[in-house]
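Why predict the complex rather than its parts? Because the way molecules touch one another can change local conformation, and only a joint prediction can capture that. The input here totals 487 residues.
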Amino acid sequence: MAYVRPVSTTTWYLKDRNYFIHMVNELTSFFVGAFALILLWGIGAVAGGPEAYQSFLASLTGPGMRLFLWVTTIVIFYHAIAWFKVTPKAMPVQKGEEFVPGSLIAGGHYVVWVVLTLIVLFLAGVL
Amino acid sequence: MNEIKLELDILRYDPEKDREPHFQSYSVACQEDWMVLDAINHVKDHVDTTISYRWSCHMAVCGSCGMMIDGKPKLACKAPVKDYANQKVRVEPLANFPIERDLVVVQDDFMEKLKRVKPYIIRKEEKPIEEGEYKQTPAELKKYKQFTLCINCLCCYAACPEYALTPEFIGPAALALAHRYNQDSRDQGLAERHKVISTPEGVWDCSFTDTCSLACPKHVDPASALQQLKIATTTQWYKELIGMGGN
Amino acid sequence: MAKVNKALFWSLFAAGGTLTAFLFPVLALIVLIAANGTPPEIMGFEQMKGLLGNWLGKLVAFGIVSLALWHAAHRLRTALHGLGLRADKLVSLVGYGIALLGTLLSAYYLLQI
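Output of the joint prediction:
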């Protein structure tokens, strides 16, 4: 009788560094989703009128909310970096015979990201 | 030449005698340029002839000697003993496969999945002999060449957590090979393979941990093939939705 | 996992992942600044009303909120399976349900602005 080794469905990702990092990456999507809901809340507040909107802004400043936003912001930055890192694997670009190096594709994404960020910060009046 | 002392803890399992696998220790005095396979061969030849394992070419092209060496799927012929000098090394059969005996795993599941993805040129219309051979530019060849290098060693399956958790998953090597044929300019079988690849146990069970590519001894990068397959499969799905799926 | 074809959900996940990778960091920064007491100029009510009143602003806001939710729903579906939860139908229903609700709500709000 061939022997089938049992696998833990709940702790397998603790057994290997790459598995663990993968699980962390997957769980960053929780904060991405949470932030989207915060944006949705804000959009709803704008639709609700000036008082509703001021109330929304005030809610952002609560200590619990502020802490959550700090964590969310850091995680979202991590998500972006991890996402661009693996993008070349999904879209190899062949120029003639050779493939464009993955680092160039990822690098291109990072550049666009930085430029976009600076533009938005400028438009927002932060810069 | 210097000698390296290796302490091998090899998994033993005799299906006719054992209820469970157990480990057996062997101390081997290795030459410093040996691979772990050489140490295991030494054990078989001089210490314990009952030990069972697969190996053949000893040069990382046949794919026979895949096993877990210190918890990592590797080709035993490509694992230098130098990396494990003066430490205990666990040697186990490839993870995620049933153990046949000692270091030998049952590969039937993979063999079936390999067939399932139709890893051969599929033509809608055969080209008559009079029209001559299929011609392919270097660029067209380069497009899929990397994915032809798979030696079916199954290290990627041993590394894949989705295959561990969901045994129905067709898996990295088989899917990467399907992609190899999809990318071949001579092939017209994408729509045909799509039927298999687009199932839940096809490419969609892949969660892109990239551990298959990290384990691959031939640098095939199956993870890349699978992500490309996801895009191709999605495109084909949308195409079929609007009646343009003929490929 | 599930029997429903995943191509649709995966394409939403991929689009959402890419869009949020490009735009969420700076948006999170702006919201964080607002949370620390001094909202940037753009977050004034009239500016927001102008931005989201514009068709392009509506489109971008709708796209980014909606796709981010579909991205999170799909990725968390996989993650929860990875954590050992075997309730894919329920997880899908709740996750994609929230994404759908968010999609509809954002359209509803944006059409009012």
